[in-house]
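In the current project phase, the collection of sequences with tokenised folds has grown. A sample record is quoted in full directly below:
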Amino acid sequence: MNTLRIPFLAIVRRFTAVATPLLLAACAVGPDYVRPDLALPDRYLARPASGDHGDTTTAPEGSDARPQRLSESTDIPAQWWQVFHSEPLDAWVRDSLAHNPNVEAAQAALRVANENAQAEAGALWPGVALNYSPVRQRVAQTLASPVSTNATYYTLHTAQVTVSYVPDVFGGTRRTIEGAQAQAEEQKFQLEATNLTLSSNVVVAAINEASLRGQRAATLAIIDMQKQVLQKFVRQQQLGQASLADVDLQKTALAATEASLPSIDKQLAVQRNQLLALAGRYPADDVDARFDLEAIGLPDALPLSLPSTLVEHRPDVRAAEAQMHAASAAIGAAVAARLPNVLLGVNAYGSSAFSVSQLFTSSSVFWTLAASVTQPVFDGGLLKHREAAARAAFDQSTAQYRATVLGAFQDVANALEAIHADTRALQAAIDAERAASRSLGRTREQLRFGDASALSVLQAEQAWQQASLNLVQARAARLSDTAALFAALGGGWWNRQGEGDRASTP
């Protein structure tokens, strides 16, 4: 048996001696990826915005409209939605991240990309195959039998090992692996983007539900107040102090307010169904958790990362960069396809015998060692235009990366402007609601003494109704725009503990 192993080992050593220098001398053709220099600005807005770079506005009167402080030294927590201090909201976001099918699809896509990258890496290794082929054959009697006994029937057993190897002389395989790894990196950040989008959608949907509940409560309060006023008009009409037209006018106002309730209820139902769908539930699988504006806290301190770090924190920007990296590697693979292709291999090392017991005896062993070099000469411009297409795809991905970065800065700038405007809008809504409430109270008092007309009461009711709804919407807008800032800054995925660079749900 030792005499049989020596030739095979010698062949392997010769094979390795030829393949190793070729691999070590190989260089990867095509461009090495370098992140483009975008000359990022040093701030998000053209003018210093309130709160931008740590500035704050003067606190307006009223604690509900207190300004929010923006600080570059404050980092975003991984579970950023917890800054609203709402246990039902925290539970709903976590449940959504665990059961939303879009997250599951993104996780599966990441696994696919990782497995494809591992599969591409296998091309750097030799391919080895084992084969065993027993053959039973009958030879025509009119022909000379190939066996020494001249028997008409015989059985031939053949066992062999086939080894093939394509050395990566010009780095085409390595560029392909590099591209596959970049695609896996892209899917990793696509998963982070899916997590961020889902969590922000849940937060905004919860705030919208709370806003609609607040609007519904305000509308019910207005209806109750209008019914009280209507009763007073009816009594005054019975006493001859008010006309029937005054009663009808108040009935019309009451009916109009009651007619607005179904629209709010419809929006509330739609918003609830959206929340359930985000959590991977059917509308029939509702739960008891409800969201109210009073139970959702407004964070006083808000993070504001430096513009230079935004490209590192935004998962959509990182995904666009990974896509650009993959396009860069594709150029190298296209260039290598136009260069000579080298194939080395022990095409066959094996044994053929008439019985299994005779396999791998000295007289039954055979082997073949072969190599080939193929240089494309003419292909109708196929490989040339594929390389040109790869370069154009890289230019396309570079432009898309720049567009994604611009969009990220736009999102942050919009959120900063909105947060500054929300403070002023909320204070104005508070002042308007207080003024309308005082006006309505005075008008109702005048009505009690018969000094107010039905029209003045109606106008005061309408003003207070609109002011009450505007106040609810202003509070909800401030919460939603706060969530938008956290999402625009990347959501804090880089602070997730215990997972390193691996993307997954919290």
User: Anything to note?
Assistant: The two ends are 59 Å apart (CA to CA).
